[in-house]
Design goal:
Rossmann fold; 13 helices; elongated; five-stranded parallel beta sheet; six-stranded antiparallel beta sheet; alpha/beta; Elongation Factor Tu (Ef-tu), domain 3
Length: 431
């Protein structure tokens, strides 16, 4: 089986091709025009596609709840966003290089003047300034700068606004047909304006009703809405902004956390593991203080196949989407086929929800729960899978846990002949 494009992918491809299709009659076809004609045509085409990708990368940053679902969830949408930005940068570089090389057969001076004209040619220099803004924006994402701090990365996104505005200043005067650029520009810049201005006003206020210690460095927050709150499905996540003035870190910052409560629960439950300064501070957040909630996002359980039983594999704090889904499996609640949960933990003391999951399994015949401890069994292997879930190769499989765990389990499953289209995973390392 193959992974087919999502509806959102199709819409993006169509939007990407619009400015190129509009410009093609004017660009013509180089045909037998030789190397100069081909380089010139390729350079202009690369510029059109590259800048369109820049604007679409901004457009998909909209992050309105529900907007991510046609793309397969917010984690996948952000990967699309990152790839659009990466290839936009590559195509913009090829755009400049191809146009420069097209001038070399005439003379080296002609090539240099094509790329670096006199100061009065402000349209070309706006293009270079847009490229420089892209470099400043993208450079910290490369590994040799070290791990990029999340909040600093968010602030750095403002540089991308300068790149888009300067890019429009470069593209609009040169385009024979301007309406596609006006349209994409409004959409891209409008999405950024929404994220910075409109979206924060739509966050829902909650109160921290209870802080439940689960293990060393792990707590579950119980949040009660001050108003209507949000409606969510199983496996979704939110962005949480704590407002506790006593927090040592993270106050006023938004971070993503998976919802561990059932959709029918009047309160939100969020499992938080100490993974950084903000999540460390939340281990001792003050009950009764306010938080802001934005969401829900994600489409982890979006692809369901009632004709197939499911295998859930969760580890670390990645167990939380399965906890929320299991809490939704009351004896009178919905159940789609049989469900086997493998809970991967270093040892029993790190299996935060072991007792509760065992109780849910006793109350629901369609749900089976098995604990796998690394200290007792080593890495998860085929023998353990076949012992506890003999038909795992026929099931729909959902993974959530640390990146290393996800990679190991995915490789193990694919090695058993399970097609990638039946393995669904979610990890927040994109943040």
């Amino acid at each position: 089986m193959r992974r087919y494009p999502k509806p959102g992918d199709v819409a993006l491809i169509a939007a990407l091709l619009v400015p190129l299709a509009v410009a093609l009659p004017r660009l013509g076809w180089p045909g037998a025009g030789g190397a100069i004609a081909w380089l010139d045509w390729f350079g202009r085409t690369a510029g059109i596609l590259g800048f369109a990708m820049m604007l679409l990368a901004a457009a998909v940053s909209l992050r309105v709840p529900g907007f991510d679902r046609p793309f397969g969830g917010l984690t996948r949408l952000w990967r699309v966003h990152h790839w659009l930005g990466f290839w936009a940068f590559i195509l913009v570089m090829l755009h400049a290089l191809a146009l420069g090389f097209a001038g070399i057969p005439l003379s080296l001076n002609a090539a240099v003047l094509t790329l670096f004209p006199p100061a009065g040619e402000w349209v070309i220099w706006l293009g270079w300034l847009a490229w420089l803004a892209m470099v400043i924006f993208l450079a910290p994402t490369f590994g040799f700068f070290g791990r990029l701090e999340y909040q600093r990365w968010k602030r750095l996104h403002l540089v991308s606004v300068a790149a888009l505005v300067l890019g429009l200043g470069h593209a609009l005067p040169l385009a024979g047909e301007r309406w596609p650029w006006w349209l994409l520009g409004i959409v891209g810049l409008g999405a950024i304006a929404w994220r910075k201005g409109g979206a924060p006003q739509r966050r829902q206020p909650y109160r921290i009703e209870q802080v439940v210690p689960l293990a060393r460095g792990v707590v579950e927050l119980k949040l009660r809405p001050e108003g209507e709150g949000i409606s969510h499905g199983v496996g979704q996540f939110i962005y949480l902004t704590p407002l506790d003035e006593t927090l040592a870190a993270g106050r006023g910052e938004e971070h993503p956390y998976t919802i561990a409560s059932a959709p029918s629960d009047e309160c939100l439950r969020i499992g938080i593991k100490e993974l950084g300064d903000a999540s460390h501070a939340l281990q001792t957040v003050t009950p009764g203080t306010r938080v802001l909630v934005e969401g829900p996002y994600g489409d982890f359980f979006g692809r369901r196949f009632p004709q197939r039983d499911m295998l859930w594999v969760g580890g670390g704090i990645g167990i939380t989407p399965f906890v929320g889904a299991a809490r939704n499996l009351t004896p009178d609640g919905p159940a789609e086929g049989r469900i086997q949960l493998l809970y991967l933990a270093k040892d029993c003391s790190r299996a935060y929800y072991m007792d509760e999951l065992g109780q849910i399994a006793e109350a629901n015949d369609a749900f089976t729960f098995t604990l796998h401890c690394y200290r007792d069994h080593g890495f998860l292997d085929e023998a353990f899978l076949r012992e506890h879930c003999p038909d795992f190769t026929e099931r729909e499989i959902y993974l959530c846990g640390p990146p290393g765990m996800n990679a190991h389990v995915r490789q193990l499953l694919i090695g058993q002949g399970i097609p990638a289209s039946r393995i669904h995973s979610e990890v927040f390392d994109f943040l």
